[in-house]
Amino acid sequence: MVELFIHTQAGLGELFAADAATRRGVMQHRYADGLVLCEPAGAATCSKQQHAEEALREAPGALAPATVESRRYALTDELDGLVDAADAVERLVVANVALSTAADLLFDHRRAWTGSGKWLPRRLLQADPEHGGALLEGCRRLCEDGEPEDFADAAVEVLALAGGPIREGHARTWRDPTESAAR
């Protein structure tokens, strides 16, 4: 499969900035790993590809402490919900949210680029083969066997890396009333 991306210099700069802000680095990865087919005066071949590689080496900045705390609280809550979930489908849905939240915390802890869809497991394994691998293996076992223990144990280890569970004393100030409580 081949994908073509056509950008102006200004447009690509905006995409790089947007991807850095979301901590995903999609276009940075595309330019660092892809093949530039055509660029007037060779600008993309050198400068944009080098810029993308440098941005990926720099990695995203740290999440704000309040964001980390909110995610720790959310993961603590989801893990409690996972233990309480009697229904197999409910358990899988809760685990999906817990996986996403644990991944965010692990990516932040390792100052690594995030991913979604097929890129989530790839980026988890790049960021931290041990903890990312344990999360993914626990998730696989939960999906196959319905047993949440390995996944929960892996998520608790990630939670510990981020500062541990939060149950009491967590307060959150809402900037936007439509903002999700899980994020």
Protein described:
65% of the residues lie in helices and 0% in strands. It has helices at 9-21, 26-33, 43-58, 65-84, 88-110, 119-127, 129-145, 149-161. It folds into 2 domains: 9-58, no CATH class; 65-161. It contains 8 helices and no strands. The radius of gyration is 19 Å and the shape is globular. With 183 residues, the protein is mainly α. α4 runs antiparallel to α8.
Main traits of this protein?
183 residues; mainly alpha; globular
Shape label? globular
Q: For the report, how would you describe the main beta sheet?
A: none
Number of domains: 2
Task: Write the element-wise H/E pattern from the N-terminal end onward.
Answer: HHHHHHHH
List the helices and strands and how they pair.
Elements: H1 9-21, H2 26-33, H3 43-58, H4 65-84, H5 88-110, H6 119-127, H7 129-145, H8 149-161
Summarize the structure.
This protein is an all-alpha fold and 183 residues long. It has helices at residues 9-21, 26-33, 43-58, 65-84, 88-110, 119-127, 129-145, 149-161. The radius of gyration is 19 Å and the shape is globular.
